[in-house]
Each structure stands twice: as structure tokens, then as C-alpha cells.
TrEMBL record:
Phylogenetic placement of the source organism: Bacteria, Pseudomonadati, Bacteroidota, Flavobacteriia, Flavobacteriales
Domain of life: Bacteria
Gene: tatA
Name the UniProt record assigns to this protein: Sec-independent protein translocase protein TatA
Task of the protein: Part of the twin-arginine translocation (Tat) system that transports large folded proteins containing a characteristic twin-arginine motif in their signal peptide across membranes. TatA could form the protein-conducting channel of the Tat system.
Pfam families: TatA_B_E (PF02416)
Amino acid sequence: MGRLGLTEILVIVGIVLLLFGGKKIPELMKGLGSGIKEFKNAAKDDQSAVKKQEEEVK
């Protein structure tokens, strides 16, 4: 298991295009982007909550 080369990436992109079609891919990427954004916000909120608890303990 090593790095992905150009050929492997093109094969993966081709399979994704065949499975989902050209019209569905932007919707999938938009959903993926919003999911990542929500995850980052939740992680940031969790870290700030932990810091507040640590400050209260001190």
C-alpha cells in the first residue's frame, strides 16, 4: 500500500462518475463540505467547553 498515482485517481474518478453521474456529484460535494464544516464547528465547541471546565477547576 503506497501512494495513489495519477492512473489510480483517474480510475476512481471514472467509477464515481459512472455510479453517480455528472449532475449528482456537485450535490454530493456540497453535502460533504457542509458535513466537514459542522464537524469542525462541533470539535471547536467541544475544545472550548473543555477549556472552560479546566479554568473552573483551577
